[in-house]
């Protein structure tokens, strides 16, 4: 009888231990297993800076190993010291991530849009051996004029703050439904009639984080970061693709010509009827252009000693 009782407890204990062990194994080992997979698959790392969920990755081939790095403003990554929000600070954090997941074993393709394009470009200049190629989508960090820049200057002039900008009046950081509608018009070429309730909902989601957005914005338009890409673009040696909406009102499309002149062999793809939010307005076309570029680089390098996409 005692033996039966002991066996019953042993059986019950094993029954409880197995799911607990399975949980801990999945919790601690699964992320490492996912990261390890990149050793046998193509790697495409996407660095996105648009304050929302980019649609582009959904149209990329499923066999690609895609790593989407959470940039400041997307609300997934813990916020750090304000000094880390500079372009140089963000480049260093991306590098730390790359080293942590051991992506440096083989060159990978890097993609960045807007602020992320600035970060990706400076990363390519700083760490050329990490990359097989890079795609910059309407990147910030260039000294070009645009409607957005004009508005900032008008605000500075109207507020008579001796050239300093009132953080409360930044067009890309709306606090009311009307300001949200203006921001969407500024960022997008396509005009949508958005119901007032939706605009209010979008504002309600963003307003609690607006102080952080202002802090981030003031850092990346400061003297240290404003023209980071322009200061480093001549150091980019990786095959480079530039994608830009022809009707971009935030970062003027003339920046594409600057990059083409400064970066050897730079490929430029301009999109008709598209504004600044390229990955939101033209996600399928953007994904197609990126994959065509990667495949062309892969085919070109397969018969030479050029870097090969991992």
Automatic annotation (TrEMBL):
InterPro entries: AB_hydrolase_1, AB_hydrolase_fold, AB_hydrolase_sf. Residues 56-283 form the AB hydrolase-1 domain. Keywords: Membrane, Transmembrane, Transmembrane helix. GO terms for molecular function: monoacylglycerol lipase activity. GO terms for biological process: acylglycerol catabolic process. The chain crosses the membrane at residues 6-30. One of its GO terms (cellular component) is AMPA glutamate receptor complex. Belongs to the AB hydrolase superfamily. This is Abhydrolase domain containing 6, acylglycerol lipase.
């Amino acid at each position: 009888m005692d033996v039966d009782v002991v066996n019953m407890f042993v059986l019950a204990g094993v029954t409880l231990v197995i799911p607990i062990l399975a949980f801990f194994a999945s919790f601690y080992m699964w992320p490492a297993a996912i990261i390890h997979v990149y050793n046998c698959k193509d790697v495409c790392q996407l660095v996105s800076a648009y304050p929302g969920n980019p649609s582009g990755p959904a149209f990329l081939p499923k066999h690609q190993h895609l790593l989407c790095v959470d940039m400041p403003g997307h609300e997934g990554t813990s916020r750090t010291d304000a000094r880390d929000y500079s372009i140089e600070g963000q480049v260093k954090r991306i590098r730390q991530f790359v080293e942590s997941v051991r992506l440096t074993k083989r060159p990978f393709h890097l993609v960045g849009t807007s602020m992320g394009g600035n970060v990706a470009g400076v990363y390519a200049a700083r760490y050329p051996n990490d990359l097989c190629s890079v795609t910059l989508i309407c990147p910030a960090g260039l000294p070009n004029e645009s409607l957005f820049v004009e508005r900032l200057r008008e605000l500075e002039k109207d507020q008579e703050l001796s050239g300093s900008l009132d953080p409360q009046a930044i067009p890309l950081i709306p606090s009311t439904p009307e300001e949200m509608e203006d921001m969407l018009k500024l960022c997008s070429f396509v005009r949508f009639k958005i119901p007032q309730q939706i605009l209010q909902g979008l504002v309600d989601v963003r307003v609690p984080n607006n102080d952080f957005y202002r802090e981030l914005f003031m850092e990346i338009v400061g003297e240290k970061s404003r023209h980071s890409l322009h200061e480093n673009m001549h150091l980019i040696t990786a095959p480079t693709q530039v994608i830009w909406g022809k009707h971009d009102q935030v970062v003027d499309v003339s920046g594409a010509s600057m990059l083409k002149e400064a970066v050897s062999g730079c490929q430029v793809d301009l999109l008709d009827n598209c504004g600044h939010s390229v990955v939101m307005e033209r996600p399928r076309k953007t994904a197609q252009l990126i994959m065509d570029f990667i495949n062309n680089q892969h085919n070109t390098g397969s018969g030479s000693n050029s870097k090969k996409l991992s």
